[in-house]
Each structure stands twice: as structure tokens, then as C-alpha cells.
Specification:
By secondary structure, the protein is mainly α. It has 20 helices and no strands.
Length: 361
């Protein structure tokens, strides 16, 4: 990741780097063959999203909604571009995110103890791939608690079981981090750096400090200080900046909120300046996606209210940490299948309303 030996690290969650290490072992480190193999698997992960997405849409709506959701994902720009643009966990995380939603719904259909055990183990694996998915964990557990039948005590015991198993799966990696770094790092260590990247003096127009951040300077500093000292320094700097620049911090968070949904903090200006029809199309798609997500959430509220909490957690809770740190469409990608789901629900709203009235009758 840093293109030079830096010693033990907890900068990333372990599963996807381990997966890439196997590819590198077989096909060579940073070779063209390794790239094609990794990109192939990313494309496979992205294609497999259609399966759980179809069944989630079928559970919430009907076969029309399920078919529309699948076709929307087939043409979703991020689902097409990101698998080979980024050799990262983004495509796998997207598959896991929609699979978590599907598993949550299935668990309420069949709330046997065995299924809660499998659900907890699956959550632990997902957190070792992308800890950011944990942002929706409390909301899915809360929904399960109210929907999984039986007595309150039994439901609470099942929720405790899921939490315990998820923690247990992560525990070996957490222990390894404690041994290596002598501090508590549940999965990843890089949050202080990410916070500093989004909140530092280069964003202050009156700053006399260095007006840019270069990869070379940060990697050099990382190698000199070591991971723990480097992250402690960045964490202190970020907290100090936030404390002394509260208004600027809020403005920057607002810019990042726009960027994670539109692609840049100034989408209209960048749309006009774009010299590529593909880039313009992505901007338009992002704008349509926002409208579709809002309409899909409204559809859930009025027609399928009991599904609102677990579905809305993905577009509303998942991106919050990125509003405070740094953003890109790659980071938002894990919740993109749910965005396709919401767009499909919005497009099929009239049929959902008819089905809802028929069921009520």
C-alpha cells in the first residue's frame, strides 16, 4: 500500500488484503496478470449483487420491483466502472452490504437459533472486510428485535448472541493488533489519518502552512514515526483543527456530503467543465439517483413502512463517517445496491400501492 516496507500495520481490514496477497503469490506482485485476476473477481462480486438485490426487492415489493432493481444494477455506472477502476474491497463490500440486508429479512422469516448464529458469524466476516458496514449494524439489529417474534427476553438473547459472535470473529485480529501496537484497535487503525485528511489547515484560506499534501511527504513521515506515533500526531492535529475552526469544519462536511452523492463538491460547475460525455452522464445519473432514493424512501414510508428502518440505514447512516473524513464515489459504493433498490421501488410505486390495497382488502 505504501510501496515500501513499513512493518506491521492495521491500516486496512485484513480480508481483502489477504485475498490480494493470494493473487500476488500466484500471479506475481503488481503484475498485469494479478490486475486482471483481481479485476475479474471484482466484476464477479459486482455481478453477484443482482442475486440478493432481486430477492430483497421481491421481499419488499413484487416481481416487477425485483426485475427493475436487477436491471438498474446492471446499468449502474459505479457497478460497471469501480470493479476495474479500483482494486479495493468496494465491490465485495457492495455484495456483502446487500447480502446483509437480505440475511436480515430472512432471519425474521426463520428466527431459529442456528440462523442467528450464522448471521452473527457473517457479520463478523463483513466487518473484517469493511468496518464501515458497522454503521448500519445497530439499525438492522433493532429491526430484528422488533420483528423476530417470540418473547422480549428471547429476542434480546438472540441479539446478544449475534453481537457476541460478530465480536468473536473479529477478536483474533483485535488481539493481533494489541500485541503489535500495544493499544486497542478493533479492526482498522487509520481513522485519525482519515479525519486529518478532511480537517487540516490547507482548507483554511488564511493558513500560512504548506498549501498542499503530497503522498511522498506523508509516507516518509509514516516511515519515520511508525504507524502508532504517526496516527497519534494526525489525530491530535485533526482534533485541534476541528476545535479551532468549527464553522469551517461544518462547511467542509457539507461539501463532502455533496461530493459523496454527486461525485464532486461543485457538481454543476464540474458538469459544465467536463470534456467527456461519460463524466457528464455520471453526474446526471448521480442527480437522478438522489431523486430516486428520496422517492424510494417516501414509497417505503407510505406503502411499506415496516421495511423503512433497515433500508434507510444504508443511505442515511452508512455515509456519515465520510462526511467527517474524506469522500469518493468508491467509498459510497457499498450502499449503491440499496440505492438501486430504492430507485426500483420509486419506479414501481403504483404497483406497490395496488398490492398494498389488495392485501389490506
Amino acid at each position: 500500500m505504501f510501496h515500501q516496507p513499513t512493518g506491521p500495520t492495521a491500516w486496512l481490514a485484513p480480508v481483502y488484503p489477504f485475498f490480494l496477497a493470494i493473487i500476488f503469490k500466484v500471479f506475481g506482485s503488481f503484475t498485469a496478470a494479478s490486475f486482471y485476476v483481481a479485476a475479474f473477481f471484482n466484476c464477479l462480486f459486482s455481478a453477484l449483487v443482482c442475486w440478493p438485490l432481486f430477492y430483497v426487492a421481491l421481499r419488499i415489493g413484487n416481481r416487477t420491483a425485483a426485475a427493475v432493481a436487477g436491471w438498474l444494477w446492471a446499468v449502474f455506472p459505479s457497478g460497471i466502472l469501480i470493479p476495474f477502476e479500483w482494486i479495493w474491497d468496494s465491490s465485495l463490500s457492495a455484495l456483502l452490504a446487500i447480502s446483509l440486508l437480505w440475511s436480515t429479512f430472512r432471519l425474521t422469516d426463520d428466527p431459529r437459533r442456528r440462523n442467528f448464529i450464522l448471521y452473527g458469524l457473517f457479520w463478523g466476516f463483513c466487518l473484517l472486510v469493511n468496518p464501515a458496514l458497522g454503521a448500519v449494524f445497530p439499525f438492522l439489529l433493532l429491526w430484528i428485535y422488533f420483528r423476530a417474534g417470540s418473547s422480549k427476553l428471547h429476542r434480546a438473547a438472540n441479539i446478544a448472541l449475534v453481537l457476541s459472535l460478530a465480536i468473536l470473529v473479529c477478536l483474533p485480529w483485535t488481539i493481533r493488533n494489541a500485541v503489535q501496537f500495544h493499544r486497542f484497535i478493533p479492526v482498522r487503525s487509520d481513522l485519525p489519518f482519515e479525519l486529518w485528511m478532511g480537517n487540516n489547515p490547507i482548507y483554511d484560506q488564511h493558513s500560512r502552512q504548506l498549501n498542499r499534501i503530497t503522498r511522498y511527504e506523508e509516507v516518509h513521515q509514516y516511515a519515520q514515526l511508525g504507524e502508532t506515533a504517526f496516527l497519534e500526531e494526525k489525530g491530535r492535529a485533526a482534533k485541534e483543527f476541528i476545535r479551532t475552526h468549527p464553522a469551517l469544519t461544518l462547511r467542509l462536511a457539507g461539501r463532502r456530503a455533496v461530493a459523496i452523492w454527486m461525485g464532486t463538491p461543485a457538481p454543476w460547475q464540474d458538469f459544465l467543465r467536463a470534456d467527456s460525455n461519460l463524466v457528464r452522464f455520471v453526474f446526471l445519473w448521480n442527480a437522478v439517483t438522489i431523486l430516486g432514493v428520496a422517492a424510494g424512501l417516501a414509497c417505503l414510508f407510505f406503502v411499506r413502512k415496516w421495511f423503512l428502518l433497515p433500508v434507510a440505514a444504508f443511505p442515511l447512516a452508512f455515509p456519515l463517517v465520510y462526511y467527517l473524513t474524506q469522500v469518493s464515489l468508491r467509498l459510497r459504493h457499498p450502499c449503491d445496491p440499496v440505492l438501486a433498490l430504492l430507485m426500483a421501488l420509486a419506479l414501481t410505486w403504483p404497483w406497490l400501492r395496488t398490492a398494498s390495497h389488495a392485501n389490506a382488502g
